[in-house]
Design goal:
- It is a single chain.
- The protein has about 525 residues and is an all-alpha fold.
- It has a domain at about 275-515.
- The protein is about 80% helix and about 0% strand.
- The chain contains 19 helices and two strands.
- The protein has a two-stranded antiparallel sheet.
- Strand 1 and strand 2 (about 185) form a beta hairpin.
- Helix 10 runs parallel beside helix 15 (about 385-405).
- The longest helix is centred in the middle third of the chain and has 36 residues, at about 305-340.
- It is globular.
């Protein structure tokens, strides 16, 4: 591999390590989060809604200016003073904007609570969540600056330390401060998890600003020309940036309404959906790591003409096949993992929709690769909101229809809505990329990989589970004979499906995988 690809692979490994660590620690602590002794199922559902709101709202608050940092940093990197102004302008602007959002929520808290946080009081949890939003926006922008400079080591180190601090604080508040009160305010349960999140973001946001100032990479200012250029580029990207987050947030809003009206106490749909999303999001370890590391390299290669585009296509197809194999693995074996980890039987239903989410992630791999090309083109990127925005709107309408307004399909309605909306967004993004002749990815191969993933999931999951259900009237139980037979059968199906997905790029796939493993061993 050349130096550029080596840098992408190195950073992919670094990003994947920290993301894998994040997911692994989350799964390890899942028995604590799903143990009603420490936090009720309803409270965990509410926490999931609040934390997802932070992730979603930051795209409005930051206006996706981290994308502008990645796109334009290469134009300024040779001039230290311009870099300081550029980073300083973005950081100062988003800090002021986030404070403005806090004021708006305080003034219009009643209608916003009814719309976004049904049944959750503004003080203290929603208010503290808004403080966390300010810190989170600053922290993610700092991480975006590191990404633009391809500082994979610093980016990953910060991410790892954040996860450790957040996990430690969660354990402290849930276990150590259980039933401890300050006045009428209880430090455990939902309150503790919200405080843990806010403190963690606060520490790393403050450190990020300090680090930029210390290394003279930022000065507090607003350069109108740089700000205007950045907003013009990033504003159309807001729907794209928030599409995945909205996909997780929209179902929680509707499911939370269903839960409150039905007064569900045991198997909260919001909490079950959150567990399913948490398992399926392990795919992001590979998907987001490669995508994050690839963006700066992608921009450089696009400037090299047809030769650079060929390198991009070759690399993209190999990395996409790897991602879809991960999707396949998660979709097939989520059943066993959920049965082992989830402490409450109320969460067992989660595994049944994870394959839907896995196939959705496979579709998203097409969407992301097309989006990289569209984001590079300064004319086409202005139309990205039509692709991502259409998908988000369809997701909202379908989820509302299938879960709340017309039908009551619960978590199945959310899974179907997400898959259909992602297919729409990916299709529109492919059309936009092709129409503007930015880069001609082999779409037939991409689509076939996704189709193979979907077919293999169905073939691997349905037969034995259907047979056990039809003959015994119950689902497969952990460590039973049916469980071992089911696992062995799915392993064979997984191997055959992976072989088919790799296809004619077997040599390139092996070389790419060896390169990843080599970098990981060195790390």
């Amino acid at each position: 591999m050349n130096d550029g690809k080596n840098k992408v692979v190195k950073n992919s490994v670094l990003y994947s390590v920290v993301m894998a660590f994040t997911k692994a620690l989350g799964l390890i602590l899942l028995p604590l989060y799903t143990n009603v002794k420490f936090i009720s199922t309803a409270e965990y559902g509410e926490y999931s809604l609040l934390s997802q709101f932070i992730t979603m709202a930051t795209f409005f608050v930051s206006l996706s200016l981290n994308n502008a940092a990645i796109r334009f940093y290469t134009d300024f990197k040779e001039d230290r003073e311009k870099v300081k102004k550029f980073f300083g302008t973005i950081m100062t602007f988003i800090s002021l904007l986030s404070l403005g959002v806090l004021i708006i929520f305080i003034v219009f808290q009643k209608p916003l609570l009814n719309l976004l946080f049904t049944g959750i009081p503004f003080f203290p949890n929603v208010f503290i969540t808004l403080i966390a939003l300010i810190f989170y926006t600053i922290y993610t922008m700092y991480q975006g600056f590191l990404q633009s400079m391809m500082e994979g080591s610093r980016y990953s180190r910060n991410g790892m330390l954040f996860v450790l601090l957040h996990a430690a604080l969660n354990v402290l508040f849930l276990v150590g401060f259980r039933n401890v009160k300050i006045g009428s305010y209880e430090l455990g349960g939902l309150n503790g998890m919200v405080l843990s999140l806010t403190i963690s973001y606060g520490v790393f946001a403050i450190y990020g600003v300090y680090d930029l100032l210390r290394k003279k990479l930022m000065v507090i200012c607003i350069d109108k020309k740089m700000l205007s250029m950045s907003i013009k580029y990033s504003l159309p990207l807001v729907p794209h940036s928030m599409a995945n987050t909205m996909a997780a947030y929209i179902p929680k809003v509707f499911l939370n309404k269903v839960d409150k009206v039905a007064q569900v106490a045991g198997a909260m749909a919001t909490a079950i959906h959150s567990v399913a999303m948490q398992f399926s999001s392990t795919i992001d370890v590979v998907q987001n790591a490669i995508n994050t590391a690839q963006r700066p390299w992608f921009n450089e290669k696009m400037g090299q003409g047809e030769k650079g585009k060929k390198e991009i296509i070759d690399f993209t197809m190999v990395s996409m096949r790897l991602t879809i194999i991960v999707c396949l693995g998660v979709g097939l074996f989520s059943q066993e993992i959920v049965l082992i980890i989830a402490r409450s039987s109320a969460y067992y239903e989660a595994w049944k929709i994870i394959p839907f989410f896995a196939i959705t992630h496979a579709v998203k791999s097409i969407y992301y690769n097309q989006a990289l090309a569209v984001m590079y083109d300064l004319n086409a990127n202005k139309k990205m909101f039509l692709c991502s925005g259409s998908g988000t709107l369809l997701n909202f309408v379908l989820t509302g229809t299938l879960v709340w307004w017309v039908f009551d399909l619960g978590i199945w309605g959310t899974a179907i809505s997400l898959l259909v909306s992602r297919i729409l967004s990916a299709s529109l993004m492919m059309m936009l990329c092709r129409k503007n002749k930015i880069i001609m990815f082999p779409l037939k191969e991409m689509i076939m990989c996704v189709v193979l993933c979907a077919i293999t999931c169905v073939v691997g999951i349905v037969p034995i589970n259907w047979y056990v259900k039809s003959t015994t009237g119950d689902q497969i139980t952990l460590f039973s004979l049916q469980c071992f037979i089911n696992f062995g059968y799915k392993f064979i199906v997984f191997a055959l499906g992976s072989f088919a997905i790799v296809g004619k790029q077997r040599k390139e796939f092996v070389d790419f995988t060896k390169s990843l493993l080599k970098k990981k061993r060195k790390k």
